């Protein structure tokens, strides 16, 4: 058997498309140079302990996928939309808000001064020592989206960013989004990831948010990529005084799904709410890594993630809350519940609290279990079929979080995909 490569192949560092301002091209070159001889994660790499064996970065998928094809979003979009195909924006398929205080620009359309400012801010929301593949995105992105909300700007409808991979050939896509939310501004941003085609592909995504004082941002992330697509994503957030960030990460498994979410509460009174739902089946794998950095005092965080694993699939949750020494009066709560639908499925959970302040309220908990046989018997004894009883109890396990999704179109799509999952997980025998 051929041994697995230990270093990132040089094929992943070949020059990508050049239709960007020079400051962004310079950033890409700098990030690419830093990745030469980058070791790939192994089981001994702590934050990839359970996922490294699923990572298959072959030369076959190193090249960029062509930015061609017709989009076929699974969502009925009740708002504005921006469409990406294979990491490159498609202006003719996009519908922008016509508002003076909300600016949406492709990276390629930025002036040199704007591009220089952006280049200095990219990667500023992520700890690239632990989010290793954010650097690969910075070395390879061919296009990107800059969203700027002026002070007090309010987007009246959700903005959907639709990321489609058309894998008719093997290759990679590197979507990039940067959101700058001004003082007291407000936006709901939906990121939908899906794919078509059957060839092996890699999607490596980075989305960054900067929230000024009083900004209010809701981010919904829906991952529905196909079985041929490895997906490695990262979301970074920096929050200032009295800002609020709400995240809903909804995902369905694949050969490799990995999402790193890092939130920095840097201004007093900032708060975040992180919800997540993951379902896996077959031999799928999904890994969520979250970090909340309580840097300033009087900040609140609430985190709830639920995983369901069927067949021989594997789900991972690693949540870390770090209370810095000056973050007095912090309130932090983390809860992770996991449901195994078969004896062959596996779920690994690792909640972490690291506290250096002495006047805080913090709690964390994790559970792993199976459907309760007494509850199943109760439902079946009252005339409900065993399959329907399984579905009712499983849906009840995650419905609390699905119901909190604030955009009905996403909620309906999630429900449709969950029904498909239930049909396969609870087939009548």
UniProtKB/TrEMBL annotation:
InterPro entries: Fe-S_cluster_assembly_SufBD, SUF_FeS_clus_asmbl_SufBD_core, SUF_FeS_clus_asmbl_SufBD_sf, SUF_FeS_clus_asmbl_SufD. Pfam families: SUFBD_core. Residues 168-397 form the SUF system FeS cluster assembly SufBD core domain. This is Fe-S cluster assembly protein SufD. It comes from Marinobacter aromaticivorans. The lineage of its organism: Bacteria, Pseudomonadati, Pseudomonadota, Gammaproteobacteria, Pseudomonadales.
């Amino acid at each position: 058997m051929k041994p697995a490569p230990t270093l990132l192949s040089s094929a992943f560092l070949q020059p990508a498309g050049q239709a960007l301002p020079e400051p962004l091209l310079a950033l890409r070159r700098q990030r690419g140079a830093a990745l030469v001889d980058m070791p790939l994660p192994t089981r001994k790499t702590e934050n990839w302990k359970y996922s490294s064996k699923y990572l298959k970065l072959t030369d076959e998928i190193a090249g960029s996928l062509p930015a061609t094809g017709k989009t076929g979003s699974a969502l009925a979009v009740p708002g504005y939309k921006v469409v990406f195909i294979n990491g490159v924006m498609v202006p003719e398929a996009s519908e922008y808000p016509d508002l003076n205080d909300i600016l949406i620009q492709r990276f390629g359309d930025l002036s040199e001064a704007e591009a220089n400012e952006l280049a200095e801010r990219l990667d500023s929301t992520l700890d690239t020592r632990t989010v290793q593949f954010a650097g690969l995105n910075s070395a390879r992105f061919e296009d990107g989206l800059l969203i700027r909300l002026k002070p007090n700007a309010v987007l009246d409808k959700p903005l959907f960013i639709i990321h489609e991979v058309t894998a008719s050939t093997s290759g990679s896509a590197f979507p990039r989004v940067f959101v700058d939310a001004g003082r007291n501004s407000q936006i709901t941003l939906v990121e939908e990831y899906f794919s078509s085609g059957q060839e092996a592909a890699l999607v490596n995504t980075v989305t960054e948010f900067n929230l000024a004082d009083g900004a209010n941002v809701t981010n919904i992330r829906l991952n529905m990529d196909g079985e041929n697509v490895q997906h490695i994503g990262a979301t970074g957030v920096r929050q200032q005084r009295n800002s609020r960030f709400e995240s809903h990460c909804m995902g369905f498994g694949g050969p490799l799904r990995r999402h790193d979410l890092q939130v920095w509460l840097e201004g007093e009174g900032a708060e975040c709410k992180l919800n997540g739902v993951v379902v896996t089946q077959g031999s799928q794998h999904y890994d969520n890594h979250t970090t909340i950095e309580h840097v300033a005092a009087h900040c609140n965080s609430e985190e709830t993630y639920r995983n369901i694993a069927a067949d021989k699939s594997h789900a991972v949750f690693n949540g870390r809350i770090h209370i810095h020494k000056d973050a007095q009066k912090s309130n932090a709560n983390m809860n992770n519940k996991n449901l195994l639908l078969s004896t062959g499925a596996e779920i690994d959970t690792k909640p972490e609290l690291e506290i250096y302040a002495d006047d805080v309220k913090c709690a964390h908990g994790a559970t792993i279990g199976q459907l309760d046989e007494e509850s199943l018997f109760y439902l079946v004894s009252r005339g409900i079929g065993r399959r329907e009883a399984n579905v009712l109890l499983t849906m009840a396990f995650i419905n609390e979080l699905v119901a909190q999704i604030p955009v009905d179109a996403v909620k309906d799509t999630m429900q449709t995909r969950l029904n498909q999952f239930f049909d396969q997980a609870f087939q009548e025998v």
